[in-house]
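Readers of this paper often ask what the protein records in our data store actually look like. Such a record has a labelled line for the sequence and another for the backbone structure tokens. The tokens are whole numbers drawn from a learned vocabulary of local backbone shapes. We quote a single record here, exactly as it is kept in our systems:
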Amino acid sequence: MLKNINKVFRRYPILIECTVITAGVAYLIYTMRSMLLFGQATLVHDNLLWNYPIFKFFAENIINGHFPFWNPFDHGGEPFYPLLLQIRLLEPVTILIIYLGRFISNDILMLFNWNRFIQSLFVVFGIYIVLRAFSKHLFIRLTLIPILLYSSVMMGSFRQDAILNQFIWIPFIVFFLLRIIYYKDYHWRNWIMLGVFIGLNWQSYFFSGTWVFLLLFSSGVLFFRRDLLIRLFKERMVVAKAAVTAFIIIAMAAPNMILLLEKDKYVFPARMIDFSYEGMAPEGGPLQYEVGSSYAIAYGINMSYNLIAFTGTFSSIWDFIQIIAPDGNKHIRWPGREGWGRPSEAYIYIGLLPWAIALLGLIAGRHDLKRVWLLILVCFALIMLGPPGGLHRLLYYIYPPMWFVRHTHTFVLFFTFALLYFYIIGANHIFSAWGGHLFHENSLRGNPDHLIKENRIYKGIAVSIFSLSIILSVYWITK
């Protein structure tokens, strides 16, 4: 029977992947049908408080054939374009949902829910197409699908709007970066699409997440894989291709650049500081008086770091502990449940088994980009911690895109993306140790493994130590 299953997996890999993805998405829609199909419920927290009212105003105007250049509701009336560039309403996905969705329903709440759901699916699909290329077995790729669909990768943005806004096009940027730098595919189409996806982020101040990622990715390649860069710069017309990519990014960034230059001619909506914060503890102020954006008019283009430390929301060590136990997060509520620790509202959850395999990949996984992704993982973890992590403060003084980042816990998907890379190479390691007998495809048979020796005694000791550490960790966490 195993041989027959093996044949099916080898003969129809793409069909099997598409079937599993379709089934996973269909089940997700079924469980959320009251919200998605009937508009009987909505998303919570930031999505409801800040995003939905603006989306409703924007969508109603589009449906009625008007583009909203003026917003009559804030401060007695002001241009609407600050909101367009503060909240990502000019996304291709959002525009299509509104224009096409109006032929199905004029229920703005339903369109809003579908917009967030489909944007999250874009994130899941983007991560999947990047990580599937690193997987050596179809079975590993199939296990990645439910992890992405039923973890905080999909669900985290249903609570906090900024999590998805920072991250939505990052996987596609990584996809084309890898095609150019790692897979050595130097065709024009890859350079053009790279420019387009980077440029898309410039429609709002959430461009900052993209440029922080580009800094860490390029630093990792520069430190650990300079050979790839040397090979790239030897390619013909690389300067011309890079110039065209830069032109696309600058052209798409122009509206936001003008917005920054015009910043003194209007007031940003939402939240502004109107009291002295000096001498007060970080995160000690009333939430209703938070700063609306990193370039609020009262503080010029950027705020002082002391103000960021006072008003920003950061991750804590509890977020990383609760990767396997999100029910401890006080922001995830149901009757009779008590949280533990002091986590942020940007929770991290991929499941106990994926977490364990990711740790194995971190320790024993083998891949020629491992150190690049390790740098990304560690640096985003430090940035998420905010002032206690140190790196956020350092980058604030030397890297201007960091001026526009106040809530560093919204980098949670960047960290999770890197963590899932280690899940993939950890699973590759397991299949390599098994000799590739289970669902064999592109196996690593014959590939030497110097970290876990072939001797069964050493394998047993390694597995016992690893299992015991997981059991003790879970026991300590639950206590």
Remarks:
- The beta strands are 70-71, 78-79.
- The two ends are 44 Å apart (CA to CA).
- DSSP finds 22 helices and two strands in the chain.
